[in-house]
């Protein structure tokens, strides 16, 4: 149980700041979370299979683009006006077809993944609402309503972002990196090895990014919890606020928690502003290596 700082005495909940767990407890929670997500996704196995096929088709069309460009240069354009225009036209048509297939697969996947994510989150919110109603009164005495609301909204929104963009980025990046590595080593082993030289550095940066992004996410989450807590408690007890003339004190508290939220976002900005833009930590290494591999290919 943590001790509240003097600025947090207004909250009156001393045990709420326990947000760090031992490695064994954290591993148990991750396993339980994965089991919950698997149970929610189980009714949509067919849709998930179709989505996986669309990802494979999209990745294959994407990987075919640089190969077709190289083939067009080698076969259709030659020095001394000896190029074969018929071959070049066929390759250009194949390139346009690959672009169309990539766009169509991407569009269909976004439609399907958006529907799947919405359905899974609908089931999750239904499960969470039923669960919070079954919790004991002692739980609500230890945790403020603001923190519970934050977990039911912002954390679910983070999961929505994972299902909408993060999961497809993970799968696409892994498929692209593996396929590009195999193609590079098959076409030219030396160039392939040159590309893979950057992998240890990328993995080290990935490890740093994962640890710091997790810390920044927790800091921002703790800060927004305080803002939501103060909003909910102040507006829920607005009659008492007016009756006891607590407007100046509430404004003082809000200035403090709002400043913490601002500071947490400023502190997390360098992590989220790394080259390549914000994204799931698991995809960061693949996203850094994929452009380099494509350029070499």
Q: From the alpha carbons, calculate the radius of gyration and give it in angstroms.
A: 26 Å
Number of strands: 0
CATH topology title of the largest domain: ABC transporter transmembrane region fold
- Based on Cα principal axes, name the global outline: elongated
Number of domains: 2
Distance between the termini: 56 Å
Helix share, percent: over 70%
Mean pLDDT: 76
User: What is the H/E order?
Assistant: HHHHHHHHHH
Tally of contiguous helical segments: 10
CATH-scheme architecture of the largest domain: Up-down Bundle
Question: Which descriptors apply to this entry?
Answer:
ABC transporter transmembrane region fold; elongated; 10 helices; 297 residues
Short characterization:
The chain has helices at 23-41, 45-76, 85-134, 137-142, 145-187, 189-196, 199-236, 238-243, 247-272, 284-296.
Report what the structure shows.
By secondary structure, this protein is mainly alpha-helical. The chain has two domains: 41-134; 143-297, Up-down Bundle (ABC transporter transmembrane region fold). Helix content is 81%, strand content 0%. It is built from ten helices and no strands. The chain has helices at 23-41, 45-76, 85-134, 137-142, 145-187, 189-196, 199-236, 238-243, 247-272, 284-296. The longest helix has 50 residues, at 85-134. The model is unreliable at 275-297 (pLDDT under 50).
Q: Helices, strands, pairings?
A:
Layout: H1 23-41, H2 45-76, H3 85-134, H4 137-142, H5 145-187, H6 189-196, H7 199-236, H8 238-243, H9 247-272, H10 284-296
Helix pairs in contact: 2-3, 2-5, 3-5, 5-6, 5-7, 5-10, 7-9, 7-10
């Amino acid at each position: 149980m943590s001790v509240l700082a003097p600025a947090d005495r207004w909250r009156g909940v001393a045990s709420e700041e326990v947000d760090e767990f031992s490695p064994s407890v954290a591993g148990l929670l991750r396993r339980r979370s994965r089991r919950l997500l698997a149970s929610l996704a189980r009714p949509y196995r067919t849709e998930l299979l179709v989505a996986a096929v669309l990802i494979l088709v999209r990745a294959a069309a994407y990987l075919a683009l640089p190969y077709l460009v190289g083939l067009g240069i080698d076969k259709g354009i030659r020095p001394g006006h000896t190029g074969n225009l018929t071959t070049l036209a066929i390759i250009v048509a194949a390139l346009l077809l690959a672009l169309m297939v990539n766009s169509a697969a991407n569009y269909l996947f976004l439609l399907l993944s958006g529907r799947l994510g919405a359905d899974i989150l609908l089931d999750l919110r239904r499960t969470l609402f039923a669960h919070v109603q079954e919790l004991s009164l002692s739980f609500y005495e230890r945790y403020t309503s603001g923190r519970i609301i934050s977990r039911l909204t912002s954390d679910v929104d983070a999961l929505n972002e994972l299902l909408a963009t993060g999961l497809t980025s993970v799968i696409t990046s892994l498929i692209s990196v593996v396929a590009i590595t195999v193609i590079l080593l098959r076409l030219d082993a030396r160039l392939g090895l040159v590309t893979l030289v950057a992998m240890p550095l990328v993995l080290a940066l990935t490890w740093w990014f994962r640890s710091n992004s997790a810390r920044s996410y927790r800091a921002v989450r703790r800060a927004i919890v305080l803002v939501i807590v103060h909003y909910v408690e102040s507006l829920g007890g607005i009659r008492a606020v007016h009756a006891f003339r607590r407007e100046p004190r509430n404004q003082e508290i809000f200035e403090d928690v709002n400043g913490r939220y601002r500071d947490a976002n400023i502190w997390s900005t360098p992590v989220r502003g790394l080259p390549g833009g914000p994204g799931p930590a698991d995809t960061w290494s693949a996203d850094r290596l994929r452009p380099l591999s494509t350029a070499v290919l």
